[in-house]
Request: fold
Amino acid sequence: MVTLMFTMTGLCAGCGDYLEGTSGVITSPNYPNALAAVRDCRWRFSAPPGRRVNSPSEFNLPRDESTGICLSYIQTFNELYWSAHPSLDNVEKICGNTLPAALNSSNANFNLDFHTHGLAPGQGFSLTYSTEEESMCGGLLPLPSGSISTPNFTLQNGTYVDCKWRMTGEDQGNQTLVFRFDYVDVPGHMANYCREGVVYLVGKRRLFMGRTCGNRSTEVLLTTPFLSSFVRLIANLGLPMRGLPGTYNVSNCGGVHEGSDAQIMSPGYPIGYPPNSICHWLFIAPLGETITLTVEDFRLEENCDKDSVLVRNGYWTGAPLIGKFCGTHAPAPITSSGRYLTVFFRTDATGSAPGFKMTTREVQRGCGGLIHTTSGNLSSPSYPTSYGNNVECRWVIDYVPGYLVKLEFTGRFDIEMDSTCSKDYVLIEESSGGDRWTEVAKNVDKLIQNRL
Reply:
Protein backbone atom coordinates (compact mmCIF):
# COMPACT_ATOMS: atom_id res chain seq x y z
CA MET A 1 0.00 0.00 0.00
CA VAL A 2 1.04 3.58 -0.63
CA THR A 3 0.12 6.57 1.49
CA LEU A 4 0.97 10.06 0.31
CA MET A 5 1.44 12.98 2.69
CA PHE A 6 1.36 16.73 2.06
CA THR A 7 2.54 18.77 5.05
CA MET A 8 3.38 22.36 5.93
CA THR A 9 5.22 23.07 9.15
CA GLY A 10 6.13 26.27 10.93
CA LEU A 11 8.65 26.80 13.70
CA CYS A 12 8.57 29.40 16.44
CA ALA A 13 11.84 30.55 17.99
CA GLY A 14 12.32 29.65 21.65
CA CYS A 15 9.44 27.19 21.73
CA GLY A 16 9.75 23.40 21.70
CA ASP A 17 12.83 21.21 21.39
CA TYR A 18 14.18 17.69 20.91
CA LEU A 19 15.46 16.43 24.28
CA GLU A 20 17.80 13.44 24.68
CA GLY A 21 19.38 14.11 28.08
CA THR A 22 18.71 12.17 31.26
CA SER A 23 17.07 15.14 33.03
CA GLY A 24 16.20 18.80 32.62
CA VAL A 25 13.57 21.51 32.88
CA ILE A 26 11.31 22.98 30.21
CA THR A 27 8.99 25.97 30.57
CA SER A 28 6.22 27.50 28.51
CA PRO A 29 7.11 30.80 26.76
CA ASN A 30 7.22 33.79 29.17
CA TYR A 31 6.80 31.59 32.28
CA PRO A 32 6.12 32.53 35.13
CA ASN A 33 4.73 35.80 33.78
CA ALA A 34 1.50 36.08 31.84
CA LEU A 35 1.02 33.69 28.93
CA ALA A 36 2.56 34.74 25.64
CA ALA A 37 0.63 35.36 22.45
CA VAL A 38 -0.76 32.46 20.45
CA ARG A 39 1.84 29.69 20.47
CA ASP A 40 2.00 26.03 19.49
CA CYS A 41 5.05 24.24 20.88
CA ARG A 42 6.19 20.62 20.73
CA TRP A 43 8.85 18.96 22.88
CA ARG A 44 10.06 15.50 21.96
CA PHE A 45 11.65 13.38 24.69
CA SER A 46 13.92 10.43 23.98
CA ALA A 47 15.12 8.44 26.98
CA PRO A 48 18.05 5.98 26.98
CA PRO A 49 17.12 2.35 26.19
CA GLY A 50 15.36 0.65 29.09
CA ARG A 51 14.28 3.96 30.67
CA ARG A 52 11.13 6.06 30.54
CA VAL A 53 10.32 9.74 30.91
CA ASN A 54 8.93 10.91 34.26
CA SER A 55 7.78 14.53 34.40
CA PRO A 56 6.26 16.11 37.53
CA SER A 57 5.36 19.75 36.88
CA GLU A 58 4.26 23.17 38.15
CA PHE A 59 1.08 24.08 36.40
CA ASN A 60 -1.15 27.16 35.95
CA LEU A 61 -3.41 27.04 32.89
CA PRO A 62 -6.88 28.10 34.12
CA ARG A 63 -10.06 27.03 32.35
CA ASP A 64 -12.51 29.54 30.93
CA GLU A 65 -14.69 30.56 33.91
CA SER A 66 -17.96 30.56 31.96
CA THR A 67 -17.56 27.50 29.74
CA GLY A 68 -14.95 25.38 31.53
CA ILE A 69 -13.09 24.99 28.22
CA CYS A 70 -9.30 24.72 28.16
CA LEU A 71 -8.12 27.84 26.31
CA SER A 72 -4.48 26.98 26.96
CA TYR A 73 -3.48 23.37 27.50
CA ILE A 74 -0.89 20.62 27.10
CA GLN A 75 -1.27 17.21 25.44
CA THR A 76 1.00 14.19 25.73
CA PHE A 77 1.24 11.39 23.19
CA ASN A 78 3.50 8.94 21.41
CA GLU A 79 5.04 9.74 18.01
CA LEU A 80 3.27 6.81 16.37
CA TYR A 81 -0.07 8.05 17.69
CA TRP A 82 0.53 11.41 16.03
CA SER A 83 1.45 9.73 12.74
CA ALA A 84 -1.88 7.89 12.70
CA HIS A 85 -4.00 10.72 14.19
CA PRO A 86 -2.42 14.09 13.19
CA SER A 87 -5.37 16.12 14.55
CA LEU A 88 -4.89 14.82 18.14
CA ASP A 89 -8.69 15.14 18.56
CA ASN A 90 -8.87 12.16 20.93
CA VAL A 91 -5.95 13.21 23.12
CA GLU A 92 -6.89 14.66 26.50
CA LYS A 93 -6.34 18.43 26.89
CA ILE A 94 -4.76 19.06 30.28
CA CYS A 95 -5.35 22.42 31.94
CA GLY A 96 -6.41 23.93 35.29
CA ASN A 97 -4.93 25.52 38.38
CA THR A 98 -3.85 22.39 40.20
CA LEU A 99 -0.84 20.17 39.63
CA PRO A 100 -1.86 17.26 37.36
CA ALA A 101 -0.72 13.73 37.98
CA ALA A 102 2.87 13.16 36.95
CA LEU A 103 3.12 12.78 33.20
CA ASN A 104 4.87 9.48 32.61
CA SER A 105 5.65 7.53 29.47
CA SER A 106 5.61 3.74 29.42
CA ASN A 107 8.81 3.60 27.40
CA ALA A 108 11.66 5.67 26.03
CA ASN A 109 9.84 8.11 23.74
CA PHE A 110 7.18 10.67 24.52
CA ASN A 111 5.88 13.96 23.07
CA LEU A 112 4.36 17.03 24.74
CA ASP A 113 2.41 19.73 22.90
CA PHE A 114 1.55 23.14 24.38
CA HIS A 115 -1.08 25.48 22.94
CA THR A 116 -1.96 28.92 24.24
CA HIS A 117 -4.89 30.95 22.97
CA GLY A 118 -3.16 34.26 23.59
CA LEU A 119 -6.05 35.84 25.51
CA ALA A 120 -6.26 33.18 28.19
CA PRO A 121 -5.23 33.90 31.80
CA GLY A 122 -2.50 31.95 33.57
CA GLN A 123 1.26 31.69 33.90
CA GLY A 124 1.91 28.49 31.95
CA PHE A 125 3.97 25.62 33.29
CA SER A 126 7.40 24.49 34.39
CA LEU A 127 8.14 20.81 33.88
CA THR A 128 11.04 18.89 35.39
CA TYR A 129 11.73 15.65 33.56
CA SER A 130 14.02 12.72 34.31
CA THR A 131 14.74 9.25 32.95
CA GLU A 132 15.69 7.58 36.24
CA GLU A 133 12.79 5.13 36.21
CA GLU A 134 13.00 1.85 34.32
CA SER A 135 10.65 1.21 31.41
CA MET A 136 7.36 -0.41 32.35
CA CYS A 137 7.87 -3.02 29.64
CA GLY A 138 10.19 -4.04 26.81
CA GLY A 139 13.92 -4.71 26.82
CA LEU A 140 16.46 -7.13 25.37
CA LEU A 141 15.36 -10.79 25.16
CA PRO A 142 18.06 -13.49 25.30
CA LEU A 143 18.22 -16.21 22.66
CA PRO A 144 17.46 -19.02 21.98
CA SER A 145 14.38 -19.11 24.25
CA GLY A 146 12.57 -17.28 27.03
CA SER A 147 9.30 -15.66 28.06
CA ILE A 148 7.58 -12.35 27.35
CA SER A 149 4.85 -10.59 29.33
CA THR A 150 3.33 -7.18 30.00
CA PRO A 151 2.08 -5.55 33.19
CA ASN A 152 -1.61 -4.73 33.47
CA PHE A 153 -2.45 -1.29 32.08
CA THR A 154 -5.46 0.98 32.32
CA LEU A 155 -4.83 3.84 29.93
CA GLN A 156 -6.02 7.42 29.97
CA ASN A 157 -7.58 8.67 26.74
CA GLY A 158 -4.86 9.56 24.24
CA THR A 159 -2.12 7.99 26.37
CA TYR A 160 0.06 5.45 24.62
CA VAL A 161 1.67 2.31 25.94
CA ASP A 162 4.72 1.63 23.80
CA CYS A 163 6.71 -1.52 24.64
CA LYS A 164 9.54 -2.87 22.53
CA TRP A 165 11.31 -6.20 23.04
CA ARG A 166 14.40 -6.80 20.93
CA MET A 167 16.30 -9.97 20.02
CA THR A 168 19.81 -9.82 18.55
CA GLY A 169 21.37 -12.86 16.93
CA GLU A 170 23.34 -13.97 13.89
CA ASP A 171 21.16 -15.30 11.08
CA GLN A 172 22.85 -18.59 10.20
CA GLY A 173 20.07 -20.03 8.03
CA ASN A 174 17.83 -23.00 8.78
CA GLN A 175 16.25 -21.21 11.77
CA THR A 176 12.86 -19.72 12.70
CA LEU A 177 12.11 -17.47 15.66
CA VAL A 178 8.69 -18.46 17.04
CA PHE A 179 6.54 -16.46 19.47
CA ARG A 180 3.66 -18.29 21.16
CA PHE A 181 1.21 -16.09 23.06
CA ASP A 182 -1.18 -17.90 25.41
CA TYR A 183 -3.78 -15.24 24.69
CA VAL A 184 -3.87 -11.68 23.34
CA ASP A 185 -5.88 -8.95 25.07
CA VAL A 186 -4.96 -5.66 23.40
CA PRO A 187 -7.38 -2.87 22.35
CA GLY A 188 -8.07 -2.97 18.64
CA HIS A 189 -9.66 -5.07 15.92
CA MET A 190 -8.05 -6.81 12.97
CA ALA A 191 -10.95 -5.57 10.79
CA ASN A 192 -9.84 -1.93 11.18
CA TYR A 193 -6.11 -2.74 11.02
CA CYS A 194 -5.58 -2.60 14.80
CA ARG A 195 -5.83 1.22 15.04
CA GLU A 196 -6.53 1.28 18.80
CA GLY A 197 -3.75 -1.14 19.68
CA VAL A 198 -1.43 -3.62 18.02
CA VAL A 199 1.29 -6.17 18.66
CA TYR A 200 3.60 -6.55 15.68
CA LEU A 201 6.80 -8.38 14.81
CA VAL A 202 9.51 -6.79 12.68
CA GLY A 203 12.50 -8.61 11.27
CA LYS A 204 15.88 -7.56 9.96
CA ARG A 205 15.93 -4.49 7.67
CA ARG A 206 12.57 -3.51 9.19
CA LEU A 207 10.65 -6.18 7.29
CA PHE A 208 7.17 -6.30 8.82
CA MET A 209 6.49 -9.98 9.61
CA GLY A 210 3.08 -10.06 11.32
CA ARG A 211 0.62 -8.47 13.74
CA THR A 212 -2.26 -9.26 16.08
CA CYS A 213 -4.72 -7.39 18.28
CA GLY A 214 -8.12 -7.69 19.97
CA ASN A 215 -9.26 -10.24 22.54
CA ARG A 216 -8.12 -13.68 21.45
CA SER A 217 -8.37 -16.51 23.95
CA THR A 218 -6.58 -19.18 21.89
CA GLU A 219 -2.87 -19.44 21.17
CA VAL A 220 -1.49 -16.85 18.74
CA LEU A 221 1.71 -17.44 16.75
CA LEU A 222 4.05 -14.85 15.27
CA THR A 223 7.10 -16.12 13.38
CA THR A 224 10.12 -14.73 11.55
CA PRO A 225 13.15 -16.32 9.85
CA PHE A 226 15.29 -13.45 11.20
CA LEU A 227 16.90 -13.84 14.63
CA SER A 228 17.55 -10.08 14.79
CA SER A 229 13.97 -8.91 15.29
CA PHE A 230 11.75 -6.98 17.67
CA VAL A 231 8.22 -7.26 19.03
CA ARG A 232 6.36 -4.03 19.70
CA LEU A 233 3.14 -3.41 21.65
CA ILE A 234 1.33 -0.11 21.14
CA ALA A 235 -2.06 0.64 22.68
CA ASN A 236 -4.17 3.66 23.62
CA LEU A 237 -7.69 5.09 24.04
CA GLY A 238 -8.33 4.48 27.72
CA LEU A 239 -9.15 0.77 27.43
CA PRO A 240 -8.05 -1.89 29.96
CA MET A 241 -5.97 -4.77 28.69
CA ARG A 242 -4.25 -7.84 30.02
CA GLY A 243 -1.48 -7.83 27.44
CA LEU A 244 0.12 -10.89 25.86
CA PRO A 245 1.90 -13.47 28.05
CA GLY A 246 3.85 -16.02 26.09
CA THR A 247 7.12 -17.72 25.25
CA TYR A 248 9.56 -17.73 22.35
CA ASN A 249 12.12 -20.18 20.97
CA VAL A 250 14.28 -20.84 17.92
CA SER A 251 13.38 -23.88 15.80
CA ASN A 252 15.98 -25.55 13.57
CA CYS A 253 14.24 -25.13 10.23
CA GLY A 254 13.25 -22.28 7.93
CA GLY A 255 15.49 -19.34 7.13
CA VAL A 256 16.14 -16.60 4.59
CA HIS A 257 17.30 -17.28 1.01
CA GLU A 258 18.35 -14.21 -0.92
CA GLY A 259 19.92 -13.52 -4.29
CA SER A 260 20.28 -17.08 -5.63
CA ASP A 261 18.37 -20.27 -6.39
CA ALA A 262 17.66 -22.47 -3.37
CA GLN A 263 16.46 -25.87 -2.21
CA ILE A 264 14.47 -26.46 0.98
CA MET A 265 13.29 -29.61 2.74
CA SER A 266 11.04 -30.30 5.69
CA PRO A 267 12.84 -31.35 8.91
CA GLY A 268 13.84 -35.04 8.81
CA TYR A 269 13.11 -35.45 5.10
CA PRO A 270 12.64 -38.10 3.72
CA ILE A 271 12.47 -40.20 6.89
CA GLY A 272 9.71 -38.13 8.49
CA TYR A 273 9.17 -34.75 10.12
CA PRO A 274 8.87 -34.42 13.92
CA PRO A 275 5.68 -33.32 15.71
CA ASN A 276 5.02 -29.66 16.56
CA SER A 277 7.30 -28.37 13.81
CA ILE A 278 7.11 -24.69 12.85
CA CYS A 279 9.24 -23.52 9.91
CA HIS A 280 9.23 -20.14 8.15
CA TRP A 281 11.16 -19.68 4.89
CA LEU A 282 11.50 -16.32 3.16
CA PHE A 283 12.81 -16.00 -0.40
CA ILE A 284 14.04 -12.61 -1.64
CA ALA A 285 14.86 -11.89 -5.29
CA PRO A 286 16.60 -8.76 -6.60
CA LEU A 287 14.34 -5.78 -7.30
CA GLY A 288 12.50 -6.32 -10.58
CA GLU A 289 12.66 -10.12 -10.43
CA THR A 290 10.19 -12.73 -9.18
CA ILE A 291 10.51 -16.21 -7.65
CA THR A 292 9.26 -19.53 -9.03
CA LEU A 293 8.73 -22.33 -6.49
CA THR A 294 8.75 -25.92 -7.79
CA VAL A 295 7.75 -28.92 -5.66
CA GLU A 296 9.88 -32.02 -6.32
CA ASP A 297 8.40 -34.27 -3.63
CA PHE A 298 5.37 -33.71 -1.38
CA ARG A 299 4.06 -36.21 1.19
CA LEU A 300 2.20 -34.86 4.25
CA GLU A 301 -0.73 -36.10 6.30
CA GLU A 302 -4.05 -35.80 4.46
CA ASN A 303 -5.72 -33.47 6.97
CA CYS A 304 -4.66 -29.83 6.42
CA ASP A 305 -5.81 -28.97 9.96
CA LYS A 306 -3.04 -31.26 11.26
CA ASP A 307 -0.01 -30.73 8.99
CA SER A 308 0.16 -28.21 6.15
CA VAL A 309 2.27 -25.91 3.98
CA LEU A 310 1.16 -22.32 3.35
CA VAL A 311 2.61 -20.29 0.48
CA ARG A 312 2.15 -16.51 0.56
CA ASN A 313 2.79 -13.91 -2.12
CA GLY A 314 4.93 -11.57 -0.02
CA TYR A 315 7.10 -11.52 3.08
CA TRP A 316 4.66 -11.32 6.02
CA THR A 317 1.92 -13.50 7.50
CA GLY A 318 -0.82 -11.23 6.15
CA ALA A 319 0.43 -11.33 2.55
CA PRO A 320 -2.00 -12.83 0.00
CA LEU A 321 -2.36 -16.58 0.46
CA ILE A 322 -1.48 -18.48 -2.73
CA GLY A 323 -2.47 -21.84 -1.29
CA LYS A 324 -2.63 -24.21 1.67
CA PHE A 325 -1.40 -27.70 0.83
CA CYS A 326 -1.37 -31.13 2.49
CA GLY A 327 -1.58 -34.82 1.58
CA THR A 328 0.25 -35.98 -1.53
CA HIS A 329 -1.21 -33.47 -3.99
CA ALA A 330 1.82 -31.39 -4.92
CA PRO A 331 0.95 -27.93 -6.20
CA ALA A 332 1.99 -26.85 -9.68
CA PRO A 333 4.94 -24.44 -9.92
CA ILE A 334 4.14 -21.14 -8.19
CA THR A 335 5.51 -17.77 -9.29
CA SER A 336 5.34 -14.72 -7.04
CA SER A 337 4.08 -11.38 -8.35
CA GLY A 338 6.93 -9.51 -6.66
CA ARG A 339 10.37 -10.17 -5.24
CA TYR A 340 9.20 -11.97 -2.07
CA LEU A 341 7.74 -15.42 -1.45
CA THR A 342 7.01 -17.06 1.92
CA VAL A 343 6.65 -20.77 2.73
CA PHE A 344 5.27 -21.69 6.17
CA PHE A 345 5.20 -25.29 7.46
CA ARG A 346 3.42 -26.40 10.64
CA THR A 347 2.64 -29.82 12.12
CA ASP A 348 0.54 -30.92 15.07
CA ALA A 349 1.50 -33.12 18.03
CA THR A 350 0.60 -36.46 16.43
CA GLY A 351 1.44 -38.38 13.27
CA SER A 352 4.14 -37.88 10.68
CA ALA A 353 4.97 -38.34 6.99
CA PRO A 354 8.10 -38.17 4.80
CA GLY A 355 7.70 -34.43 4.14
CA PHE A 356 8.63 -32.34 1.12
CA LYS A 357 11.46 -31.05 -1.06
CA MET A 358 11.15 -27.81 -3.05
CA THR A 359 13.40 -25.65 -5.20
CA THR A 360 13.22 -21.99 -6.12
CA ARG A 361 14.68 -19.96 -8.98
CA GLU A 362 14.65 -16.27 -9.78
CA VAL A 363 12.87 -15.03 -12.90
CA GLN A 364 13.79 -11.76 -14.62
CA ARG A 365 10.73 -9.56 -15.15
CA GLY A 366 12.37 -6.19 -15.82
CA CYS A 367 10.58 -3.79 -13.49
CA GLY A 368 8.14 -3.45 -10.62
CA GLY A 369 8.07 -5.34 -7.35
CA LEU A 370 7.23 -5.13 -3.66
CA ILE A 371 9.41 -2.60 -1.81
CA HIS A 372 9.97 -2.67 1.95
CA THR A 373 12.98 -0.41 2.51
CA THR A 374 12.55 2.94 4.29
CA SER A 375 14.05 4.86 1.35
CA GLY A 376 15.26 4.20 -2.15
CA ASN A 377 15.01 4.99 -5.86
CA LEU A 378 12.67 3.84 -8.62
CA SER A 379 13.26 4.28 -12.34
CA SER A 380 11.60 3.32 -15.60
CA PRO A 381 13.17 0.47 -17.63
CA SER A 382 16.46 1.42 -19.35
CA TYR A 383 16.53 4.84 -17.62
CA PRO A 384 18.06 7.29 -18.51
CA THR A 385 17.69 6.01 -22.09
CA SER A 386 14.25 5.57 -23.65
CA TYR A 387 11.88 2.92 -22.33
CA GLY A 388 10.39 0.36 -24.75
CA ASN A 389 6.88 -0.16 -26.06
CA ASN A 390 4.09 -1.99 -24.20
CA VAL A 391 5.84 -1.74 -20.85
CA GLU A 392 3.86 -2.08 -17.64
CA CYS A 393 5.56 -1.83 -14.25
CA ARG A 394 3.89 -1.91 -10.84
CA TRP A 395 5.72 -1.08 -7.63
CA VAL A 396 3.97 -1.64 -4.30
CA ILE A 397 5.49 0.20 -1.34
CA ASP A 398 4.71 -1.66 1.88
CA TYR A 399 5.66 -0.28 5.28
CA VAL A 400 5.33 -0.70 9.03
CA PRO A 401 1.99 0.62 10.41
CA GLY A 402 2.22 4.13 11.82
CA TYR A 403 4.54 5.44 9.12
CA LEU A 404 3.84 7.40 5.92
CA VAL A 405 5.40 7.35 2.46
CA LYS A 406 6.69 10.44 0.64
CA LEU A 407 7.42 10.28 -3.10
CA GLU A 408 9.57 12.91 -4.81
CA PHE A 409 10.54 13.10 -8.49
CA THR A 410 14.08 14.43 -8.28
CA GLY A 411 15.63 13.58 -11.65
CA ARG A 412 14.72 13.73 -15.30
CA PHE A 413 11.00 13.24 -16.05
CA ASP A 414 10.40 12.70 -19.79
CA ILE A 415 7.27 10.73 -20.70
CA GLU A 416 5.27 10.91 -23.92
CA MET A 417 2.58 13.55 -23.41
CA ASP A 418 -1.01 13.59 -24.61
CA SER A 419 -4.02 15.51 -23.34
CA THR A 420 -5.64 12.56 -21.54
CA CYS A 421 -2.51 10.66 -20.40
CA SER A 422 -3.95 7.56 -22.04
CA LYS A 423 -0.77 6.47 -23.85
CA ASP A 424 2.21 6.73 -21.49
CA TYR A 425 1.79 7.79 -17.88
CA VAL A 426 2.79 7.35 -14.26
CA LEU A 427 -0.20 6.49 -12.06
CA ILE A 428 -0.01 6.82 -8.27
CA GLU A 429 -2.65 5.14 -6.12
CA GLU A 430 -3.12 4.70 -2.38
CA SER A 431 -4.91 2.11 -0.27
CA SER A 432 -5.83 1.77 3.40
CA GLY A 433 -5.92 -1.99 3.03
CA GLY A 434 -7.58 -4.72 1.01
CA ASP A 435 -7.90 -4.61 -2.77
CA ARG A 436 -9.43 -1.14 -3.14
CA TRP A 437 -7.06 1.51 -4.50
CA THR A 438 -7.78 5.23 -4.96
CA GLU A 439 -6.11 7.31 -7.66
CA VAL A 440 -3.94 10.12 -6.29
CA ALA A 441 -2.36 11.49 -9.47
CA LYS A 442 -2.01 10.61 -13.13
CA ASN A 443 -1.40 13.93 -14.88
CA VAL A 444 2.31 14.42 -15.59
CA ASP A 445 2.21 18.19 -14.96
CA LYS A 446 0.64 17.60 -11.57
CA LEU A 447 3.34 15.10 -10.67
CA ILE A 448 6.07 17.60 -11.48
CA GLN A 449 4.44 20.49 -9.64
CA ASN A 450 3.78 18.54 -6.45
CA ARG A 451 6.33 16.63 -4.45
CA LEU A 452 4.33 13.59 -3.35
